[in-house]
Amino acid sequence: MAVINVVFNKVSGEKNKEIRGKVGVNTNLNIESVSEAKINFDKNSVDVINVDFIFSAVFDPELGKVTIGGTAVLMEDEKTKNEILSSWKESKKLPESKALPILNIILNKSQLEVAIISKELNLPLPFKLPQFINGEEQKPKQNINRAE
Predict the structure, then answer these.
(1) How far apart are CA 144 and CA 103, in angstroms?
(2) pLDDT of residue 144
(3) Range of the domain at 43
(4) For FRET with 4, which of 23, 60, 91, 104 sits at 20 to 30 Å CA-CA?
């Protein structure tokens, strides 16, 4: 899979009140649509897949929210492209064999953007950073829903 770009077209953030005590952060990634498109390069055009998404981080108890919407532009071979488009048309889901890499691409770019917005709003990071403990690196849990 070739990722051409991940473009954000909606970014919003709000902070409702000051942080006091424990903070819970719930993140959510929704795929809104999957469609075929063409991109023109000089005199040639290339078929691509547009994956439209909304990523949100909600800071509890009612501290704030950051939402990002965008499109991941992917280039696939014809067979894989048809598999992804057919699966979406039939079930509004990505094929199981292709979903994980696509979701991870979107998640990685979105979490970085949300981290920047969260910093500007003086909200905590929506994910846990790795830490060194007794000379060893502590890996964060894979579950992106967490409470501090």
Answers:
(1) 13
(2) 46
(3) 2-147
(4) 91
Instruction: Give me the CATH number covering residue 25.
Output: 3.10.420.10
User: In sequence order, which residues have a C-beta less than 8 Å from that of residue 78 and are 6 or more positions away?
Assistant: 47
Question: With bands split at pLDDT 50, 70 and 90, how would you rate the model's confidence at 129?
Answer: confident
* CB 63, CB 17: distance < 8 Å: yes
pLDDT value of position 139: 61
Tell which residue, 68, 55, 35, has the closest CA to residue 104: 55
Helices (H), the chain: 78-91, 96-120
Nearest to 105 by CA among 28, 51, 37, 38: 51
CB atoms within 10 A of CB 148: 12
Four-residue CA torsion sign, 3, 96, 65, 116: negative
The total number of structural domains that make up the chain: 1
18: its two tokens: 């000051």
Distances (CA, A) of 32 to 35, 70, 104, 137: 10, 10, 16, 36
Confidence tier at 57 by pLDDT (50, 70, 90): very high
* Token code pair at residue 111: 């979490």
